[in-house]
Amino acid sequence: MSNMATENAASQRIASLLDAGSFVEIGGGVTARATDFNMQKTETPGDGVITGYGVIDGNLVYVYSQDASVLGGSIGEMHAKKIAALYDMAMKMGAPVIGLVDCAGIRLQEATDALDGFGKLYLKQSMASGVIPQITAIFGNCGGGLAVIPALTDFTFMETEHAKLFVNSPNAIPGNTVQKCNTASAKFQSSEAGLVDETGTEEEILAKIRALICMLPCNNEEDVSYEECTDDLNRLCEGIENAAEDTAVALSSISDNGVFFEVKKDYAKDMVTGFIRLNGMTVGAVANRSKVYNEDAEVTAEFDGSLTAAGAGKAADFVRFCDAFNIPVLTLTNVTGFDASTCGEKALAAQTAKLIYAFTDATVPKVNVIIGKAYGSAYVAMNSKSIGADMVYAWPNAEIGMMDADLAAKIMYADSDMQTQREKAAEYRALQSSPASAAGHGYVDAVISPADTRKYIIGAFEMLFTKREDRPAKKHGTV
């Protein structure tokens, strides 16, 4: 039952997001306390933010929605206190927080009180991180210090046409203008900055949040993300080998009823991250990708199969989220080595280290399927048996080793003729690069038919359901 007095954009968003009639407002009578600059003469209903709770498909969630009709939705002392109080309640109940942002920024008339409010919000979000899922959706302005709010949450959505997300506005960046590069746009923040998981219309975003909430645990101790599986557990994934290049398609093929919720879809497209369902259970998926196909089966992007700094960082953040919320992790590995570029070199070692650390530190069930090439240290970083994968499968065409067999033969037999090099390449392929060889050394648990992938993965996660694994006693790692 809603207590919202006015039907404005902020309240309409809440009504569209939640199950009909389920919203209960908290703090609807709160107004600003500031009196400087004749603030007492300004009406501030709710102090510019609607806060409360409701349900999404029966799942309890806490929501705040900023009201741009009240001082531009700017954050003042009481505005921040309302959101902070909402976080306190969400933490007690163990339920997600969803923030619907439409804000002019910090309220200048309440400078230090508003700054303290920002700090309190940062504190609450930091404390809640890894305890309850946090989701932000941006429908208007989200600038300056407020841009940190979505960065502190787990998932961020952004309206395509009117939303702006920035620390510094495009025109405030030396040498830049909004016409030259709109750094505040949904396109830039999703594809270049990688801060936004998905963009779309207001209706599309609210629908996506509803779908995501139904796939996520409500907190880090209780899990209501299961649903009854109506798909055949032994269903064959016919033709899945044809999707080895675009693993978003492959993951949909593996998942119950084709469900795949991709996150950070437009950023570092050479790495796929998202959620699938296996026997009704939510599983986090990470996969290398060399081609992106659209709905008309046309190639819209192409990559060389290498591990990039952006892709490694994207995957590392995702694995850390999954581990925090006890979500099992599946990887589809098809990587030829490391990205070779001046730009990538600046961060490649550091981001690869973060990826290795994320996989190694994760105690959730971890399953890896090698679907193509698995070369060098880049393969080791992709959830290999060496860094802690519980089960590793490989398709028969997989190539596992240091590098391509032909190249290895050319290096080892540089002074030999072509015929010798070809013979040695074939020998190297059989002895060092084949999945049978990797299985023989214990690095692959089974070589499986691509069509049987779903069956084997479900079986592995069922077996790993009761996994318990300790880590060395320490405050936290430093990678």
TrEMBL record:
Residue ranges of every copy of the CoA carboxyltransferase C-terminal domain listed in the record: 232-463
Ranges where the CoA carboxyltransferase N-terminal domain occurs: 1-170
Top-rank taxon, per record: Bacteria
Pfam families: Carboxyl_trans
Coiled coil: none
PANTHER family linked: PROPIONYL-COA CARBOXYLASE BETA CHAIN, PROPIONYL-COA CARBOXYLASE BETA CHAIN, MITOCHONDRIAL
Listed name of the protein: Propionyl-CoA carboxylase subunit beta
